[in-house]
């Protein structure tokens, strides 16, 4: 190739760096002149010329061929340049088109869309990516041009904003009456999918697959559709002649139909590259054409030939959200509008011309952000529901038990039990509650207590006979007066009526078993009668009740020493010494313990 | 309660059961406040009784020995001029200065004594020394309450 690389590349680079509309940039003049001069060489070896060029320069070469309206555009289709773009350079290619703005680049891609092969699919994908930044007014023709490729349909549906969904539905509904058979079914499928746009996700065409096989799955052709190469060719031959393109690439409605009318469609044998001819022959056997069945409406800027599409009963199979591919950049349906700007702005491409205004216009028309809904929980079986209900009941019953226990505790703890009725309560007798001891106090007790107190006065004076009479009077008034009974026994003990005294002490203990004084004097009586075991038991109880009384401790310890119970005596002696360190009798008992104990 | 149950909502039966449980649990709780108030009242009454008994005991040391005799139950509020409480106090120098426990002279104390029907009595036995049992009685929550204090008074 004798075409100097730097010359064309430098002019392309200049064209790319210049500002203004692409068709009015100064470098375009030099490029047009250069292309005219080198046309023959470029036609024969354009692929070798651009081999190794950066992606942006290669694409610029393809775009320039379109802009200069040179026949090179047919020989050097943009779709083929796109098809040679490596997979890892697709983002760069997308940025290239985005820098011109989607409205400007969509006609270019629209023409590439109608070329056969993988490049058309890439163009469709890029159109789909750029669809979100298109103003509403310009979206319709782009949509119209893309409806006739499987990937275009698919990418269209996933990117159609909510605000124009109804418009797309109307478009399809207008188209539907003109169709019949599988074509109508396809449109019906499209309408159905438009009803559930959240289930549609963009598909990035894979170069390996799309280069050899059509993007859309091919189904068994409908009997009514042309299934042979001849029929397909007939359908293509029936197309009207392609009009000459205008001097400038206008908006999509003006240019896309013209390109679509003449360009071979995917699957057609017409104008297929030599390396794809054999494949196209085979593909033609399964190609269907809608041209003879569904003439395109006059309002639509596409020729009937452009309607020839591979049959695809379900070109965009509905997917569940879990099966969906991860959304491509700029098509995150769940992202808020503010957080998900148009692809042109998110991918770093600089917008030229009115791209920014279009972007803002689109934002104003954009649908409110979809709220990402959490998946509904799986339906619960009856067993699970019963188990949950039972667990709730168990929990509530547990709480009820705790509440009842708490209530019971509070009631028992804080509501003092009513005082015991005195045993000697007489009919109509008044009863008081002692505010300190909480014991009931009856009128009888008060009367008996008066006698008891008289007996105490005489007892203090060691006038036991006199005291005994008062105590007896007290007991006669209130037989439950424990102190009076005990004191009566004491008086009898002092009067050496031991048996009678023991009887009184036992009587007092029968009424109040813990009455320490009766235990103590009963112990004395047992000791005197040498009933050691009983005496020891009585002293133990008396000492346990009143350890602060010296005499009880002394007599208890003395008895232990007498009985030789040194092991029991040691802690008692230690406790008494600690309590009464200056008591002489206790000291002597401890010395005796140390002396006698082994 | 499991998360699944929470998301499943609450049935009417569960709400009713929960309300019953809350009622069972809350009623005793509310009673605690009443119990607390009654406990405070009891403590207040007992303190009053102790104070009155000691006041009587101190008074007995000032009255003539022979004047210390049995005293039947006597109401403190609007009681007779018995030399024990009425007049309760005489901060002045004349009989006109004496404070009697009446609604006009000591309204708060009078109301308190009236409310609880506070009474006192003396039970005297023996002679030289005299065993004097001072009994303070009052009605608390419908129950007759009693506080007693015994002192010995010798002839001076």
Automatic annotation (TrEMBL), chain A:
Coiled coil: none annotated. Residues 227-240, 255-267, 334-355 have a biased composition (Low complexity). InterPro entries: CellSynth/LPSAsmb/PSIAsmb, TPR-like_helical_dom_sf, TPR_rpt. Residues 243-254 have a biased composition (Pro residues). The keyword Repeat applies. SMART domains: TPR (SM00028). Pfam families: TPR_16, TPR_19. TPR repeats lie at residues 448-481, 482-515. Residues 201-357 are annotated as: Disordered. Keywords: Repeat, TPR repeat. PANTHER family: LIPOPOLYSACCHARIDE ASSEMBLY PROTEIN B (PTHR45586:SF1), TPR REPEAT-CONTAINING PROTEIN PA4667 (PTHR45586). This is Proline-rich protein.
């Amino acid at each position: 190739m004798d075409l100097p690389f730097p010359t064309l590349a430098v002019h392309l680079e200049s064209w790319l760096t210049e500002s203004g509309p692409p068709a009015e940039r100064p470098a375009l003049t030099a490029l047009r002149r250069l292309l005219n001069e080198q046309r023959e060489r470029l036609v024969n070896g354009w692929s070798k010329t651009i081999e190794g060029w950066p992606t942006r320069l290669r694409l610029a070469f393809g775009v320039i061929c379109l802009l200069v309206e040179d026949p090179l555009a047919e020989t050097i289709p943009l779709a083929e340049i796109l098809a040679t773009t490596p997979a890892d350079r697709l983002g760069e290619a997308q940025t290239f088109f985005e820098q011109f703005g989607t409205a400007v680049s969509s006609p270019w891609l629209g023409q590439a869309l109608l070329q056969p092969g993988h490049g058309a699919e890439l163009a469709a994908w890029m159109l789909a990516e750029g669809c979100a930044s298109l103003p509403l007014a310009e979206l319709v023709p782009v949509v119209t041009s893309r409806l006739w490729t499987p990937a275009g349909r698919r990418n269209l549906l996933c990117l159609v904003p909510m605000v124009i969904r109804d418009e797309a539905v109307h478009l399809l509904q207008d188209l539907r009456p003109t169709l019949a058979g599988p074509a109508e079914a396809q449109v019906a499928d499209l309408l159905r999918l438009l009803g559930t746009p959240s289930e549609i996700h963009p598909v990035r065409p894979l170069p390996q697959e799309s280069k050899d096989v059509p993007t859309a799955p091919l189904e068994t052709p409908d009997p009514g559709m042309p299934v042979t190469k001849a029929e397909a060719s007939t359908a293509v031959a029936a197309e009207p002649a392609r009009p000459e393109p205008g001097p400038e690439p206008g908006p999509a409605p003006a240019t896309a139909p013209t390109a679509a009318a003449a360009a071979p469609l995917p699957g057609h044998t017409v104008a297929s590259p030599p390396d794809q001819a054999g494949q196209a022959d085979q593909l033609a056997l399964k190609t269907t054409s809608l041209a003879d069945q569904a003439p395109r409406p006059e309002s639509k800027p596409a020729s009937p030939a452009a309607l020839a599409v591979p049959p695809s009963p379900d070109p965009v199979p509905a997917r569940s959200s879990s099966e969906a591919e991860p959304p491509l950049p700029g098509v995150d349906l769940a992202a808020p509008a503010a957080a998900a700007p148009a692809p042109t702005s998110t991918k770093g491409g600089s917008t030229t011309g009115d791209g920014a205004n279009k972007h803002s216009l689109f934002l104003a028309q954009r649908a409110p952000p979809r709220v990402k809904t959490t998946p509904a929980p799986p339906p619960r079986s009856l067993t699970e529901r019963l188990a949950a209900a039972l667990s709730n009941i168990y929990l509530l019953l547990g709480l009820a038990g705790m509440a009842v226990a708490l209530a019971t505790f509070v009631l028992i703890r804080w509501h003092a039990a009513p005082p015991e009725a005195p045993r000697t309560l007489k009919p109509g007798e008044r009863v008081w509650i002692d505010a300190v001891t909480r014991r009931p106090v009856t009128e009888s007790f008060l009367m008996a207590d008066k006698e008891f107190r008289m007996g105490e006065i005489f007892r203090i004076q060691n006038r036991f006979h006199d005291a005994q009479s008062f105590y007896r009077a007290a007991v006669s008034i209130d037989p439950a007066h424990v102190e009076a009974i005990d004191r009566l026994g004491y008086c009898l003990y002092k009067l050496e009526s031991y048996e009678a005294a023991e009887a009184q002490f036992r009587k007092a203990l029968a009424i109040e078993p813990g009455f320490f004084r009766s235990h103590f004097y009963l112990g004395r009586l047992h000791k005197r009668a040498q009933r050691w075991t009983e005496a020891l038991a009585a002293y133990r109880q008396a000492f346990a009740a009143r350890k602060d009384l010296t005499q009880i401790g002394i007599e208890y310890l003395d008895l232990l020493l007498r009985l030789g119970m040194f092991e029991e005596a040691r802690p008692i002696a230690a406790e008494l010494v600690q309590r009464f360190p200056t008591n002489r009798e206790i000291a002597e008992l401890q010395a005796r313990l140390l002396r006698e104990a082994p | 309660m499991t998360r699944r149950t929470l998301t499943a909502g609450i049935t009417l039966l569960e709400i009713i059961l929960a309300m019953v449980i809350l009622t069972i649990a809350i009623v005793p709780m509310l009673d605690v406040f009443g119990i607390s108030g009654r406990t405070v009242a009891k403590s207040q009454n007992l303190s009053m009784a102790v104070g009155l008994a000691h006041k009587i005991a101190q008074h007995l040391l000032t009255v003539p020995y022979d004047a210390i005799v049995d005293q039947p139950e006597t109401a403190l509020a609007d009681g007779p001029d018995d030399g024990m409480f009425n007049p309760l106090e005489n901060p002045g120098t004349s009989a006109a200065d004496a404070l009697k426990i009446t609604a006009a002279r000591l309204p708060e104390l009078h109301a308190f004594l009236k409310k609880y029907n506070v009474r006192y009595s003396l039970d005297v036995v023996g002679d030289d020394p005299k065993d004097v049992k001072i009994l303070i009685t009052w009605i608390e929550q419908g129950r007759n309450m009693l506080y007693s204090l015994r002192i010995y008074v010798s002839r001076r």
